[in-house]
Automatic annotation (TrEMBL):
Pfam family, one: HET
Coiled-coil intervals, chain numbering: none
Source species of the chain: Psilocybe cyanescens
Organism domain of life: Eukaryota
Ranges of residues in domain Heterokaryon incompatibility: 164-311
InterPro entries, per the entry: HET (IPR010730)
Protein name, entry field: Heterokaryon incompatibility domain-containing protein
PANTHER family documented for this protein: DOMAIN PROTEIN, PUTATIVE-RELATED, HETEROKARYON INCOMPATIBILITY DOMAIN-CONTAINING PROTEIN
Length: 687
């Protein structure tokens, strides 16, 4: 046998002979450079080699390095989610700081064990929902749920209650040779269809079908084979119920490695992954290895694709295939094939599931509007093959939160708290190279701007105060115009409440009544003023219909107060991220601030500039990430530009604040005739 080299003086202080039941402690290793220097001085020190390898893979390159033995066990660096552990599965009395040897392929029995342990020990928190298929007693499901029957190797229509797994993967440039189309549906629903067409299936789908059978399940849902790709109605039905497809799955298979649909599921078959577990014998009979958190191990391609975000956060259980490891992540725990937490199912693994974590959406989120903004922040930078899927790729998350908040959805915004959803902006414009206008979506929606990923919803965590704001600080009666018909309809009214459910105390939402569709207290300044747009101006209606036909999305139509400002002040140089431009009134007096949706679009714009007064606030609390707090009350405002000479349709160009104290209001020009009719706008109609 090879003689084990002695430990260096640093590694000796770690007391590696004490494997189990260690007390929490911190071990200073010096600087990163010190670690490398000592590793060179003691090139045979096994522990030093492992630590250096760990630091390399973790990306640490400067500063001081310390190791901690955590209270829950395991050595822990400044890299959340990554870990050093002892290979001691046979003797371990605790899962903390313990690991096991990984084979070339994943044991199907281990995956079955994970699902079973979750079903037995985790109760309702991890129990998938029921009701993915619409029935006489369930009005919210998909009309038809198609599944791959891995036993009969064909597509079948599911019956209510059928168990199935779902697949989350990256298409990449690979266009599957076999997809569910109107012309292929008949063939794919014949028994044995996939046996005959096996070589034409992407490898990831082949592997997923094999895995389903390996673990004793039967049915699998895959987007390209379960939604009719050239049937708009079927695609729309599936997309709008995507939240249920993943929430009702027994488990979601996450193909987190590779950049296309032929990457496969590493570890499922022989030769499909590198068998290179880093194992070092640091003392006689004492072996150690490094482990990684599940999110740290996921491929950039999967975490960069827009569609995969909702597939990850909506599922109740996931089995994640990375380049060299397989993980199980549910809403209670996280297990991996190289750790032994599943041998101690009541022990919670907080380390493996941390790191660059993307948490699950929770059924009883106390702040669902803030949660939506959090996920929008994650979603916005991700890539879509088709820009037209900007809202579709986020619809599952929107539907999940809309159900929680008793709301409808209009162009990606919640209709039950529309005044909140309208207030969106880019909190880091320089980091994202500033938003650009996204064709095919309204300018008043986050979807209309590439890069918008923040909004007032992030601050809406207290239902009592926010509902009071909706009732007393907002005033616009929002109407919409639908593509195709141009019909004038309220965005929200008492019938909406009947459709989506009456809000309870914890819900942030309008409370409509017979006197007001938005449940607001009637403000004195609105007495005698028109709030419903006319539809009998033939010329105006022609313009609205013409503009609607060009764009194929909803317009807003409403009456609102507007003011004019003379110009804008460039943001201060020390405002590196915020990019808040000053609003300048008469005499160049600063009276507020504005976040341009795209500063380039405003470079050549000549004043005066029109602002729509949206709502009031009592104080400004650094909403735009500018580290400024103002106790002065202000209006939320929307900067608009008119499209064409008719001044019928307007587009949004920014969101900002206008101080409502006397000095500020005296330096802006107001329309003294009352509210303006802001007709259909490309993104926000006539404001």
């Amino acid at each position: 046998t090879n003689k084990i080299a002695p430990l260096c003086d640093v590694c000796q202080t770690l007391n590696l002979s004490n494997i189990n039941n260690r007390e929490p402690a911190t071990y200073a290793l010096g600087t990163w450079q010190d670690v490398y220097r000592k590793a060179k001085q003691h090139p045979r020190c096994p522990s030093s080699v492992l630590i250096r390898s760990f630091l390399d893979s973790s990306g640490l390159g400067s500063g001081k390095v310390s190791m901690q033995w955590m209270e829950k066990g395991g050595f822990f660096f400044q890299t959340e989610g990554d870990n050093l552990a002892f290979l001691n599965e046979d003797t371990a009395t605790s899962p903390y700081g313990s690991a096991r040897v990984v084979d070339e392929t994943i044991d199907p029995e281990l995956m079955k064990k994970w699902i079973k342990l979750c079903e037995v020990h985790h109760g309702g928190k991890c129990t998938p929902k029921q009701g993915v298929v619409k029935t006489a007693g369930n009005s919210v499901g998909v009309k038809v749920l198609r599944l791959i029957d891995t036993q009969y190797q064909c597509i079948v229509e599911a019956a209510p209650g059928d168990r199935y797994l779902a697949l989350s993967y990256v298409w990449g440039p690979v266009i599957p040779l076999i997809r569910l189309l109107k012309d292929t549906m008949g063939e794919l629903m014949q028994k044995g269809a996939f046996e005959r067409l096996w070589e034409k299936l992407p490898i990831t789908i082949q592997d997923a079908m094999d895995m389903v059978q390996m673990i004793g399940e039967r049915y699998l849902w895959v987007d390209s084979l379960c939604l009719i790709q050239d049937n708009n109605d079927d695609m729309l039905d599936g997309i709008t119920h995507m939240d249920l497809v993943y929430q009702c799955a027994v488990c979601t298979i996450i193909a987190a490695h590779g950049s296309d649909a032929n990457a496969g599921l590493p570890g499922l078959n022989e030769g499909s992954r590198p068998a290179d577990q880093d194992i070092v014998e640091v003392l006689p009979g004492v072996r150690m290895t490094k482990t990684r958190g599940v999110y740290n191990a996921m491929s950039g391609a999967h975490t960069a694709r827009a569609w995969t975000l909702q597939e990850l956060v909506l599922s109740y259980r996931t089995i994640v295939f990375t380049e060299d490891r397989v993980y199980f992540r549910c809403r209670t725990n996280c297990w991996a094939e190289d750790t032994i937490y599943d041998n101690f199912p009541t022990a919670i693994n907080y380390v493996l599931s941390s790191g660059g974590e993307i948490g699950f959406l929770t059924d009883n989120d106390p702040s669902p509007l803030a949660s939506c903004i959090f996920h929008l922040f994650r979603y916005a930078p991700r890539k879509l093959t088709k820009v037209s899927d900007t809202i579709n790729g986020f619809t599952g998350i929107l539907q999940f939160i809309a159900h929680q908040t008793r709301s409808g959805i209009l162009e990606g915004l919640f209709t039950s708290s529309f005044d909140i959803s309208l207030l969106s902006w880019d909190n880091y414009p320089r980091a994202t190279n500033r938003p650009t206008r996204r064709a095919g979506f309204p300018s008043w929606s986050w979807a209309g701007w590439q890069g918008i990923k923040d909004g007032y919803g992030r601050f809406c965590t207290d239902p009592t105060s926010v509902n009071a704001w909706l009732q007393t600080k907002t005033y616009i009666v929002w109407y919409m115009r639908s593509p195709g018909t141009a019909k004038l309809e309220l965005v929200w009214d008492i019938n909406s409440e009947l459709k989506y459910g009456k809000p309870e105390e914890q819900h942030i939402a309008y409370r409509p009544n017979l006197n007001d569709p938005y449940g607001r207290e009637k403000a004195a300044f609105l007495e005698g003023l028109q709030t419903k747009p006319n539809t009998d101006d033939i010329r105006r209606e022609e313009v609205i219909r013409s503009e609607l036909d060009k764009r194929k999305y909803h317009f807003l139509h409403f009456f609102a107060y507007t003011v004019l400002v003379q110009g804008f002040e460039s943001p201060p140089r020390d405002s590196e991220w915020a990019m808040v431009y000053g609003l300048l009134g008469a005499g160049g007096k600063k009276c507020g601030g504005i976040k341009f949706d795209n500063p380039k679009l405003m470079k050549k714009a000549k004043g005066p500039h029109e602002l729509v007064l949206l709502s009031k606030m009592d104080r400004y609390d650094s909403f735009f990430n500018d580290s400024i707090n103002h106790k002065r009350p202000y209006y939320w405002v929307m900067l608009i530009v008119w499209v064409g000479k008719d001044k019928v349709v307007a587009e949004r160009r920014g969101i900002g604040f206008l101080y409502l104290d006397s000095p500020s209001m005296e330096c802006v020009e107001r329309d003294r005739s009352g509210m303006n009719d802001i007709g259909a706008s490309l993104s926000s109609p006539h404001l």
